[in-house]
What we know:
heterodimer; A: alpha+beta; B: alpha+beta; 4 domains; globular
Amino acid sequence: MRLEDATGEETGGLRRVRQPLPHDSAARHVTGEAVYVDDIREPAGTLHVVPGWARDATRGRIISLDLDAVRAAPGVVAVLTGADVPGKNDVSPALGDEPMFVEEEIEFWGQPVFAVVATTREAARHAERKARFEIEALAPVLTVEDAVSADTTVLPDYQFRKGSPETGLATARQRLEGSLQIGGQEHFYLEGQVSLAVPGEDGDMFVHTSSQHPSETQHVIARVLGVPDAAVTVEVRRMGGGFGGKESQANHWAGIAAVAARVTGHPCKMRLDRDDDMIMTGKRHDFRADWVLGHDENGLVRAIDMRFFARCGYSADLSLGVVDRAMFHADSSYFYPDALIHSRRLKTNTCSNTAFRGFGGPQGMLAAELMMDTLAIRLGIDPLDIRKRNFYRDGRDVTPFGMKVEEHATLHAVVDELEESSDYRARREAIAVFNSTSPILKKGLALTPVKFGISFTLKHLNQAGALVHLYTDGSIHLNHGGTEMGQGLFQKVAQIVAEEFGVSLDRVKITATHTGKVPNTGPTAASSGTDLNGMAAKIAAEKIRARLVAFACERFQVEPDAISFQDNGVRIGEETISLGQLAREAHMARIQLSATGFYATPGITWDRPSASGQPFFYFAYGAACSEVTIDTMTGEMRVDRVDILHDVGQSLNPAIDIGQIEGGFVQGMGWLTTEELVWDDSGRLRTHAPSTYKIPTASDVPEDFRVKLFGSTGNPSPTVYRSKAVGEPPVMLAISVFSAIHDAVASLNPGEVPELDAPATPEEILKAVSHMKRSRARA
Amino acid sequence: MRQELRFLHRGKVVELADVRPTETVLDYLRLRRGLVGTKEGCGEGDCGACTVAIGRLVEGRLVYQPVNSCIQFLGMLDGAELVTVEDLAQDGRLHPVQQAMVDCHGSQCGFCTPGFIMSLFTLYHAPDAPPTRKTVTDWLAGNLCRCTGYRPIVDAAMEACFQVADDAFSRRAEETTAALVEMASDPHDLRLGDKDRFFAAPASLDALAALCEAHPDATIVAGATDVGLWVTKQLRDLPQVIWLGRVRDFEKVEETPGGVLLGAGATFSDTHAFMARIDPDLGELWRRIGSRQVRASGTVCGNIANGSPIGDSPPALIALGATLELRKGAASRTVALEDFFIDYGKQDRAPGEIVTGLYVPRLDPNHAFRCFKISKRFDQDITAVLCALRLTLADGTITEARLAFGGMAATPRRAAKAELALIGARPDQPASWAAALKALGDDFDPISDMRASDAYRREVARALLAKSLVEIGGTPDERTRVTGLRGGETSNAA
Lengths: 779, 494
């Protein structure tokens, strides 16, 4: 696929944005020169830290802990427990419910109780296994069902109400109900959790870490060290993947490394082994979604009652926002005249589930799409027609949380175009013919929409800062609060700054995120990295440019509109000088060539207690059409073809956007198909390595994979260069794969709704197939 | 006796005496050499971030294979060329595979990228690989990427890998070959360490047999694709390691009139084409064992000797009637493969005894063979259930059946009751084999684990037997399979 074809739009005089430039680090990625935390040349005397835990405890009180053998092991310098934490023994983002080291009650299998500091990582790992625990076992609460019956939660229940769902359901022509289990997902960032803490003078601590939220990591480190935030500096150049898994989950390990550095006086590095990482850190929440739907004979939804039961794990972490976002997306793209959307945040003795690309949105949307499929099967109407009938449109445009969907025309345009370009109707017919003559293999097809709300639903996170310096040689130092995890944020923001100064990208130095340069930042999350930081950097650049223009007007006696920044130079009237020359002259005239930029998203008025106001700045749209084949004897499944059309507004960088769309789709497909987290009856995670937890490989991606950017005329909301956020929405394009599998199973007994939960592993598909075959045999 | 490890790196022979028995290549690179371009992603050979290329002579020709450096012991580099991601760009110019990855936007977070680059480098140097996306996705099955969705990486491979190799490595291939020949000509046994803790690599079968008899507790290593994990994950101390990789002619694969004879050092890669010639299903099974990295290191005999209850290859080999050759000191013996597996973790191998080879009979014209692997993911996954069936047919009637399963019991095993019930049945008459499907239920009592439940294993075992019979009975496999078509893959969209 050629990118020029994919963008389908003009660049309108812009020179740097809109260009499909490679990732800023691409050349360093391919040569191995890109430096990740574990690659930083270790300062002399660096020690290595490994977390210690009880391998036979899921939940229990610690009666005694014998660490003598650990201390005596070769290479061990220190062993840390809760008593060694100089500040507060808590690494939670906010609520004080996550001890760095458990002191009393172990709450999940894998929870750290101590840490070993040794001269080598290998020595620390060997020593760690010598700990002896005496634990009084307590009955663990493991599943959604366990937690519902034990009534354990990490946070209070919450709901949206719109109109009168009770009346709506009571008066609807027909009612349907269902329940769906939705599995969680391991992030499997290729670079595991890692931090390097270097102690300084006067209680200072400098920490290199792989965190999406350096400010919060800084605050947690300060908290555990018992020092002011100002004594702690956190730097992040790049992460080897994040996906939400390093939004709050990096804090724990950075905190331990910092405490180890404080206690020993040495630089200390903590890099989790992959198994420990998968066992100890949180994942995408698994959910049960129960629903009742009232509708008319044409398949128009009259009212819904949806109840989400989220397994949050042992602590709250980010579960408030995650489950809220599931509720915000329980409408998918559909208008519910009356609605009750209820949620429970269940506490279980499992790792604390956390942010994962989509942040609850995928779970909410999957439930909504399965409702549409169910409705279609029951009424014998094509699922795409049911979907389109229920889309938001004029007069039917208010969400269950009271926000008006203004841009529904984009939703319609995206879906209509994809319906056409994917040849949906003809393939639907071809598949019906195939299925009627194929007893073993069955095909399924689905075209599903995506509408994803952009903005943090926690209002205060919708702000960002940037710091831009122009040096007197014309080179530019760019810094902002966003972090680079592979998504291309740094390059997009650099393109924006290059555009402002009219310079080529090689003049813009991209620098590591640093809490000493831009403070009090939010996490790089919620797809908002470019919207927020790109705008902040643009504002900073504009400030410097405005000062240069004012200076040049005076110096060269011209009007402002006679000055333009282009081609690495500044055109002043008839004359062009280099940016460096103008910078030098401005500097001699004592003009400030450094500026901060600050941006706060406008129009966000969401008030959670009253469940009212506007939580989102805008929506991003997309649609995907997937075709699959299932083997009804074994449950094996193959994705045959995928067509995607996705709305990124006017793209800042079409290559990076296509990369986000394809990568997000494949990650979502993994979540719904091969990626199965398995806990045993005693609460031990059994899938804690890539040998047992299967993310997609290259061959799982269909050869016939057609991805296009929607030909947008620009985001109607005033975002940076009218672009749209792209990080998370594509994950939900993968719901089309699940829906297509559902469709293939449904072909076995027309009119009956398959009982298919996520992920649709071969075993799950075969279970659903067997159920259909049995009920057909009975009929 | 030689006491220094010798391998080629950047055109020079590296000699090392201080090598710990289970020190990994990855730790050597990152911790000792400060070459941090090679990454650790999982430490168990499943993600490929640590992939390096190993150059060796295969029948006199220089071949580069991808290897997971996280579970490869340093001593195993003896006599080989080591290539890492730092070595590819020359004079500030990217290697063609690196340039293609940049041009195609093949990296996002970049952490997996060095591993992909090295796998692509080995594909770039594989002149016989068919230039298809299927070749590429198979070649990259052992490299996980969580960011890109793979499409741009496959594009990069299509762009860069299927041209005549022209890089610094192809240009100095003659010198490299000469250096490898020189190292390979060393007739001496290699021993790194002392008498208690050592990495030993005997140069001959006699020396190997003597060494194993003298050190019955030593760990015998061929590819280390499993033993590596004992070290990196179980943190086991293996003080004495005996590596088979230098035993002369141990990697040989010979075709005899009746079958194929594999040396104990023959890897899955070495044997793949031979197996595919016996039957396409066997070739496809081989393709789905581990990844290219695992198959380049892992040996068929090691897969057997190690006694995994899944052991992808044993059920198929049992169905084919393979026999295993063993040797202890000077004494050799042969056992039927099915008799080698006694119980969970227990094999018919005495302390100090070694597996020296495997004989796999070819199929006769009156044989029909099918083999299926079920796993959550098609590529590079451990089997939930493996079914292999060899029928002897006379005029369409079954006169003999060898039906073996993996993942259904503590060992790979034959289904005796179902085999018996198959005698006299006709594959083209489903009613005639209904009893065999039923009997299969009495043959096995599988367990539930993270890969599959017992119920699924039972159901799918029956389904695979039925599918085998349906196909042998004449139904074309494009009507019965979503993957692994016997005639090769076709386009699938409606």
